[in-house]
Amino acid sequence: MKRHSDSVPEQPTIRPPSEWRSTLIRVTRGCNWNQCRFCGIYSHLGEPHYSPRTYDDIARDIQLLKERRPQSEELFLGDADPIHAGVDLICRVLDLLYQSFPAKKVTSYARVSTLKKIGEAGIDRLAKHGLTRIHLGLESGDAEVLRFQRKGQSPQMVTDVSTWLRAAAIEQSFYVLLGLGGVERWRQHMTGTAALINQLTPEFVRIRRLWLYEPDPVSGAPGCPLLTQVQDGSFTPQNAEGTVLELALLLDLLQPSPTFLTCDHSNNVVQVHGRLDTDLEEMRREVRAFLNLPETQRRLLYEEHRSRI
Ligand code: SF4
Question: How far is the C-alpha of 135 from the C-alpha of 205, rounded, in Å?
Answer without folding.
Answer: 10
